[in-house]
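quick one, two chains, predict together pls
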Amino acid sequence: MNEIIYMNGYGSYVWSAYGFTIFSLILLFYFYYQTLVKKERKLKDLQDKHEQKS
Amino acid sequence: MFYKLPNTLIDTLRNWLPVFYSTTLVTFSIGLYYAIYNSPPDYIQGDSMRIMYVHVPAAWLSLGSYSILAISCIAWFVFRNPIFNLFAKSIAPIGAVFTIIALVTGSIWGKPTWGTWWAWDARLTSMLILFFLYIAYMMTWQVIVNKELAAKISAALGTIGFINIPIIKFSVDWWNTLHQPATISKLSAPSIHISMLTPLMLMTIAYLFLLITLFLIRYKTELVEVKISRIKH
């Protein structure tokens, strides 16, 4: 386990690179997914209002 | 054609997205297992070489994403179909994030390998220019209110920026750079052992699935946005 964490002295470099990558990708996915959910909700509201009017 | 397409596509995307979510998660898990645990360290660079497994696929796909963006912009000029703008708008933020991942992980890898975080050499500088091209493309849509004008300017910008792709690709051959030459080439056998090539390919496949997943989410969002504006006006 220690071997994987320290990686012969390169652990801080390797883990910060992996950490940055995974954090960026999760953040991007979360942001995209939330935007989609919000827009779909907005569309549904507008469609409901549109139907009520007609 | 364009006005009928979104409804069908939204339904299709709704069915396919869960498949892409799970495939991305599975391929990333396998790729990371190989990259961190089931691959040997390099005989010169040691374990710092493991950064390659997150750095190289990000760099490849940042170039691939820009190529798709530029081809979409050219297609918009030829066919004037707004669907090509939706393609380009959907892929731009993903490409920008892949580029920043390639730049940051490359910088972290550079410190133990070259002794510096950054050097203004051809490969690094052209990658930084690629990032600015993505930002400029996205800013065009945000800043210009007239959408027809924004479409023209962004398509022109996306097309002109295509020049940077071969510059990035061949920068390590054309100039003396700190960056190593390509290890994977179409024309010759890869100069990398199979034990390292396997995790690299697995991570590339994982990144590719993520790119497709994110693109589909973004594209679906753009289609929903089109429907919203159609109802409003």
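Residues 58 and 98 of chain B are 5 Å apart (CA to CA).
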